[in-house]
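Lab notebook, bench 4. Continuing the backlog of folding jobs that were queued last week. Each job is logged with the same field layout so the records can be merged later without manual cleanup. Today's entry covers GH64 domain-containing protein, a 268-residue chain. Filled in by technician R.K.

JOB TYPE: sequence-to-structure
TARGET: GH64 domain-containing protein
LENGTH: 268
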Amino acid sequence: MKRKPASFWGDTSGIPKAKNVLTVKVLNRTNGAYPDSKVFWTFDGRTRSIAQQPYLDMPANSSGRMYFHLGSPTGKYADFIEFTVGPDQFNGNTTRVDAFVLKIAMRLHAADGFDQAVGEKPALFSESRAATFARFRAAVPAEFDHLAQGTDKILSPGGDPEFRPGGTYADYYAGYTNAATSAEILGCSGPLGGDPDRCAALNRHVTTAQANKPGAYYRSAPANFYAKFWHDNAIDGRAYGFPYDDVNSQSTYVSHADPAYLLVAVGY
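JOB STATUS: finished
OUTPUT FIELD FOLLOWS
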């Protein structure tokens, strides 16, 4: 695959070869907001700033997470990536299923030349946090405005009380379908918990005939416009905006054998 431009991802020539499965390098892409000494990662009970330890020799592990924190290891600005690492395989993704807190992108490189990046676009990292939140509010309809909590985080509608029974927007999907409540649709729960295709179609507001046509997604309300925003601001348009966003390969899931390194860009 074609190599990604070096300007955002930096020089990869000095990344040490893994003794375990792959080397993870954490990149400070906070646009000057935080020094390396204030950008932290946590994995397997260990927390380090990237000034102390920019690399992690990742062992095989099942259903793991690596967390990233700005300011301090217990500060309010924290986010994560998810992965399962086999003896010779990496499977993982960035996610917006729960919320957005930090700008995250990752790039997997394998020994056979495979090279793929997922997550937020580099352009998103270069704009201010205030600008990102302002663009979110401008891009979504009124029902989704409140998901932006100041400039601290943007909640997913799937876990938001306002879309649950008794909430202000509990009837957001009323009249569009009787298959489930708004909360069940946005969270892919209840009767949709075992029906990925149906839940994805409802979030994207598409018919069965449009299910494999990304250009038709999110064209009309009601739809999950929170998810749409992250797709619009993602590398190759791929994002995990709701639990079954992997339907039709729209999520940030990336998988390959014989991985060499994983770069994780952490932004503000």
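OBSERVATION: The domain at 18-126+252-266 is CATH 2.60.110.10 (Thaumatin).
SIGNED: R.K.
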